Amino acid sequence: MRTTPIIEMDKRFDPKSYESRWQAEWAAQGYFVCAVPGAPPGSAEATATGSSEAYCIMIPPPNITGKLHMGHALQSTLQDLLTRWRRMQGRNSLWLPGTDHAGIATQLMVERDLAKESKSRHDLGREKFLQRVWAWKEQYQGNIRRQLDLLGASCDWTRERFTLDDGLSRAVREAFVRLYEEGRITRGEYLVNWSTGLDTAISDLEVEMRPVTDKMWQIAYPIAGGASDERVVVATTRPETLLGDTALAVHPEDERYRHLVGKQAIVPVAGRSIPFVADDSVEREFGTGVVKVTPYHDMADFETGRRHGLPGIQVIDRKGRMTAAAGAEFEGMEVEAARELLLAKLRQDGFLVHEEAYLHNVGFCQRSGVRVQPLMSTQWFCDVSSMAAEALAAHRDGRLELVPASWGKTWEHWLENIRPWCISRQLWWGHQIPAWYDEVGNVFVARSREAAAAQAGHDRLTQDSDVLDTWFSSALWPFSTLGWPEKTADLAFFYPTSVLITGFDILFFWVARMVMMGLHFTGESPFARVHLTGLVRDAEGVKMSKTKGNVLDPEDLIEEHGADAVRFTLASLDAPGRDIPLDPNVMAGNRAFGNKIWNATRFALSKVDEAKIPESIDFDRLALPERWILARLSETAAGVDASLEDFRFDVACRDLYYFFWSDFCDWYIEMAKPGLEPGNERLLVKEVLLLTLDRALRLLHPAMPFLTEELWQKLPGHEAIHPQTICLAAYPQRVPKWELSALEAEKMKLFRETVTIVRNDRADKKLTHRVKADLYLQSAKAGVPESAVDAIAFLSSEEAKRLLSSIAGVRSVMVAAPPLGATNKHIRKGAEITCRFDIPETAVDLDKLRLALTANEENIGKVRARLESTEFAAKAPAAVVEGARRNLETLQLERARLRAALGLDAEPE
RNA sequence: GGGAGGUUAGCUCAGCGGUAGAGCACCUGCCUUACACGCAGGGUGUCGUGGGUUCGAGCCCCUCACCUCCCACCA
Q1: Please, which positions of strand B sit below 7 A from a protein CB?
Q2: ipTM for the whole complex
């Protein structure tokens, strides 16, 4: 005997009461642990499915530095949604979790921590410092898992990886050595982006251009060996680099300066002679048309210098201070101070011709915020040009699909213009470069120190002190996490992965590099499809930032609304190519949706007695409401599947929301109520109620895992669907047999319209729902549109009467002329429907009627004009013409009704 | 300087060539035997501008304007 479950369930749902319980249960049961065909049995025995069809998503590994932000919450929600959906479809679905060592970010945080003890990493030394970072990592790594658990993530934690763990480190060394042996990785001295804030080189991608108002100075350079007063004027924003000038450049076709090419100029203050060179890159219109060339302190000048075989002079060092080469009086000065001193000297000697404010773009170190200093240094570079070509080809031939596809052009442009990737960093935390040097500087690149020693023939070797750019190890993530370079069962089964979900902001940093490395090392794109999400913003669409104080914390939101509401909200806002404006009101609305689901279940459980979710149902024996809701269920299942295939999470959520709230709760449950009354039972109503609820919960499960599991476990008969958990129950599919015929669909439409008529009339008269209505039906006058439905017969049937009584407070339905004076007549499907209430007829709101008449006549005018156009009749499809004709007829009947109510003649013309 | 996206109700956004939609907000009436995190009803639109294609354009084409964001070595 079932007790009455309604007593057991609270009137309000409380996500906190079950969310953590279910996450713990799922983990304990190992539902998300994948067993791979051919793999040795182990903990994976508890696996969900033995399916041989793989589905795999690699998490974009969050930094171990800390805390998940809204972007992680969004992306994790979508990844989990897809994984749960595929898992329920029976795929062997792996969502592999992990974290990134995040070289610079992590090192900075630990250094900041050290600074509290007034220590620097140099005080500790490399060994001790790294021990400290590892300790720090151990402390924070669990945080990521805890947060993903809170969100309901169905990761396989037995496969969790870390970019610095042994396996991944091995993969990194393997990749590095292979690329080196192929000649793609080289070491050399180049002008690189130097961050004095981080004391390391950074890649082009880590440089952020920002507009800055500087000054543009014009400086005169005397001509050597010319007339004593002959000078040429040069414009510059960085006068201090003049000390490192090794040439002046002019455009080869600039008549103003052509005569100078081959001559020498004298660098003011420094007094050195430097040549004039002619170079196409000089813009004649800009500045004075003469450019100072400082190869070691300017990217463009570096290239110019190379073209002309010019030497370079390093006048600024890696700390941002002037070197000895800048001259004794400048040596050791900060750049700013050196600039002031130099300007003073120039001014004093009459070399400073002009100065003005100047707005231009300047490169800043994205991470530390300092101005990037171009600096000559020895670094490791990876030539990715051929890999980029492969990545381009994969995109063009469809092996790699970007969603939304509009990112394609950006992809092409970046890869077509790619430059060598500076992969070495002067940091300690990261993968130390697998290169060793002997006493005389010979380099041995190898997979291990032993291998390097074997190459060298001795062990007097020192390892390169630099580490690799964090993104180098991330680039290997899709296959290094599966055991590459070993040929593991996981790699064979799950690689290439199915989809990647990440933010567009790391399209180049990460996605492009994974595709390049994946294609290079495995011959396959690491994933077939990439869904790029937008940026999570605040309710007003403003970017979240600490300084603006508008940052939302996923953990707070989960605490307040429950994980399911957070997930549903994020997923429903993920429209292609758009950012995600996160409004707490919307979140509250979706929490209310959870409450609605809770209460619908609570209602059903209180009514179904001994009934169970039926294993099958005889659709043909059902009454219209049951047939209708099953039809809607089938359509919704079909729609959700299609939407998820296309990454249209917004559409899938909208359809689910509408189906559950409007179709199921507002309409079906209301229609089911009379059929659930003792002694009045409609055939199989309880079974259909349970069946629909079961399917709806399963459809919703990927988006709202906790609530659906909690409720589904309460449904009688759920064990027959899956003995343990909704997580592994089959995802509902379309059932074509359940879909309604056109006739039935029309009947349902007529019924709903009739309900609305009654409710409208009641609201117009300001009556409460308690005042019952009497309905009068009679055939409408001539000119009524044809209809397949016999409206009068249908609406006056016992079945319809009972439904109308329950849902719309209709006391009686009479096939008769309405009492004299009745004004609220409505025409539907050839029937004139009049609604009367048990109260004196209130005064008709004439203004409202007049407005309605005006609108009606406007519409008639429009439709008639279309119908009278010969072109419309000739060219529009017949169905459209016919639709317009019917429309006109209905509008005309409506007009007659309105005119009668207003006491006007029936026909105006 | 290139490129992408956006411009639809008060707000945030859907929208498939055929009479403009949702949620939230707002107004009215309701504690109707699941739910007030609720029920029912309601109002609101020059679909950014100007052209074009079409019988018919929010939707397709072109122009312009404004907003967001990427990429880019005019010193």
Answers
A1: 2-6, 11-15, 18-19, 22-25, 28-32, 34-42, 54-56, 69-75
A2: 0.94
